[in-house]
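so i finally got all the pieces together for this one. its two components total, 226 residues if u count the protein bits. some of the lines might not be protein, just check the labels. i wanna see the whole assembly predicted at once instead of chain by chain like last time, that was a mess tbh
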Amino acid sequence: NAGVTQTPKFQVLKTGQSMTLQCAQDMNHEYMSWYRQDPGMGLRLIHYSVGAGITDQGEVPNGYNVSRSTTEDFPLRLLSAAPSQTSVYFCASSYTLAGARGELFFGEGSRLTVL
Amino acid sequence: GDSVTQMEGPVTLSEEAFLTINCTYTATGYPSLFWYVQYPGEGLQLLLKATKADDKGSNKGFEATYRKETTSFHLEKGSVQVSDSAVYFCALTLLDDKIIFGKGTRLHILP
């Protein structure tokens, strides 16, 4: 049972570098999302997708891009890394958010440091 | 707007103490309510949920009751263990594409 798989688990970047955080799920979930978690700030939604080919912005989308070409994958791209993007990033997926089947499944997180 | 407010931590208790973590919400419509738990170094995982008023969610000795009249979903456990040390998040969902989390409450259990 793989669930939600995020790679890499740790990454150090220099300011201005670009990179992609990978997220894959094997549960055939339509909904996928990316959060960042900073001390004292809780979880903040970056981008989300309700199905292949559909993406939308969350609370803090600036500096990040996403795409959803398949149901399984939802990569997060940092275009030009900044120290303010130092954080722990979580990918999460769900069959549906609401009602009796509403549950988000989270990956283990990717810790990113931007120098 | 829609929101979730939970008590700020950290909360420090001794083992076998009674736990309450307060959570209140503001929402238009009829939300589903959730508690998620995050153990050190891990992602969040669902602890329990309730989808309509007066429902009680329960798991691993934790309970929470959906109180529409007080717009609350307080988390309780009768006797906490050291292994319950974690961060707890209250959350609500309203539609298929919207979930709102509280800021989280860190719980420390002392042996």
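Chain A touches chain B at residues 4, 31, 40-43, 48, 50, 56, 90, 92, 96-100, 102-109 (CB under 8 Å).
The mean pLDDT of chain A is 93.
anyway lmk what u think
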